[in-house]
Design goal:
The structure holds two protein chains of two kinds. By secondary structure, chain A is an alpha/beta fold. Chain A is built from six helices and seven strands; from the N terminus they run H-E-H-E-E-E-H-E-H-E-H-E-H. The longest helix of chain A has 18 residues. By secondary structure, chain B is mainly alpha-helical. Chain B has one domain: Orthogonal Bundle (Arc Repressor Mutant, subunit A). The chains are: A alpha/beta, B mainly alpha. The structure holds guanosine-5'-triphosphate and magnesium ion (MG). Chain A: InterPro entries: Gliding_Motility_GTPase, Gpn, P-loop_NTPase. Chain A: Belongs to the GPN-loop GTPase family.
Chain lengths: 209, 117
């Protein structure tokens, strides 16, 4: 189904009040931006964050030259889900230096899509490791670059993927296919955040006067 | 407004000038997807980045969109936003899901939204 109106929306509803995040992570040229573009209602935009290895963002700029600063670029797109919820999709590089910034940029993310090119599976090992370590729920999506066919079992083996992590095949150039990847992730999140497994929600205490 | 590759050609001096050399106190409240809304119009004499933010945020606009629009790193953008927030010129709609697991209702709403794409 095509929704021209949502695709052409440039400004958010004035009632929009809840931003949500999903991160698409993967090696160079694996199709992250393509996937974001396929489902985004805006042209993907690019931005940067800079941080020292010590873990401070570089806003105290006097020390920039002295400390070794890491700058990472990432891009993002946007999907207005309804009049309140807005989903932001981030395309983030999977390489090591990027992970210094994960917490600062992506705390509170719903989950991640690890995009892989089956010709270069080893490129995604590091990202999968980090996501597992962080406890961020994720799915693995194999982007179809026309490489030799692998069975899901072969890919799971090569990635050492836990049974419960969904593995899907996609074509990031296709809106429908990219949309299915996101739906698979959110359905997976529902099982991870099963009602029984959740802590009982505590009311936020009112500030005492 | 300059829309080149953000950050790359920003000398530390320029960034220093923008933020008055302040550190990030107060700016941590701004998540990447906190939605910012202007509460007033730009006034003459205002720092140009502040004025640009007020123009950009007439409709809700995420922090990361503001950063991309300004062509500035996210951390610098957060400081500029904290300035405007402190003086009541913008309001901030923070994400409900940050720092805790998303609840089922939110996931359900996300699914409905995605299926309707
Ligand atoms: N055959 C094929 N090509 C694709 C697919 N997805 C993306 N591409 C192409 O692969 C190239 C890289 O895609 P990008 O979306 O730029 O990849 P990226 O992961 O954002 O790349 P970097 O940000 O540079 O790491 C582009 O030329 C795309 O058109 C796909 O599913 N199949
Ligand atoms: Mg890219």
């Amino acid at each position: 189904m095509d929704s021209v109106t949502s695709e052409q929306r440039q400004t958010l509803h004035s009632t929009a009040d809840n931003g949500l995040k999903i991160v698409v992570v993967g090696g160079f040229g694996v199709g992250k931006t393509t996937l974001v573009r396929s489902v985004s209602e805006i042209r993907p935009l690019n931005t940067e964050e800079t941080m020292t290895q010590a873990g401070e963002t570089v806003d105290d700029t006097a020390g920039v030259a002295a400390k070794s600063a890491t700058t990472v670029a990432f891009d993002f797109g946007r999907i207005s889900l309804d009049t309140h919820n807005v989903l932001y999709l981030f395309g983030a590089p999977g390489q090591e230096r990027f992970w210094f910034l994960w917490d600062r940029l992506f705390s509170g993310t719903l989950g991640a899509v690890v995009l892989v090119d089956t010709r270069r599976l080893a490129d995604s090992w590091y990202a999968i490791d980090r996501l597992e370590h962080h406890g961020t729920p994720f799915v693995v999506a194999c982007n179809d670059f026309g490489g030799p066919a692998h069975t899901p079992a072969q890919i799971r083996g090569a990635l050492d993927l836990a049974d419960e992590v969904p593995l899907v095949f996609c074509d990031a150039r296709s809106r429908e296919s990219s949309k299915q990847v996101l739906i698979t992730l959110v359905e997976h999140l529902r099982t991870v955040v099963a009602p029984a497994a959740r802590p009982v929600p505590q009311p936020i205490p009112e500030p005492t006067p | 407004m300059s829309r080149g590759r953000p950050g790359r050609d920003d000398s530390p001096d320029r960034l220093y000038t923008l933020t008055g050399g302040r550190s990030r106190a107060g700016s941590d409240a701004f998540d990447l997807v906190t939605l910012v809304v202007s509460e007033s119009d730009p006034v003459p004499g205002m720092q140009s980045e502040h004025a640009a933010i007020l123009r950009m945020c007439r409709y809700p606009t995420a922090v990361v969109e503001v950063a991309a629009g300004l062509g500035l790193p996210v951390s610098i953008t957060r400081i500029l936003l904290a300035d405007l927030h402190d003086t009541g010129r913008i309001s901030a709609r923070h994400p409900r899901a940050s720092y805790r697991l998303p609840d089922h209702d939110i996931l359900e709403q996300v699914l409905v939204g995605l299926r309707n794409l």
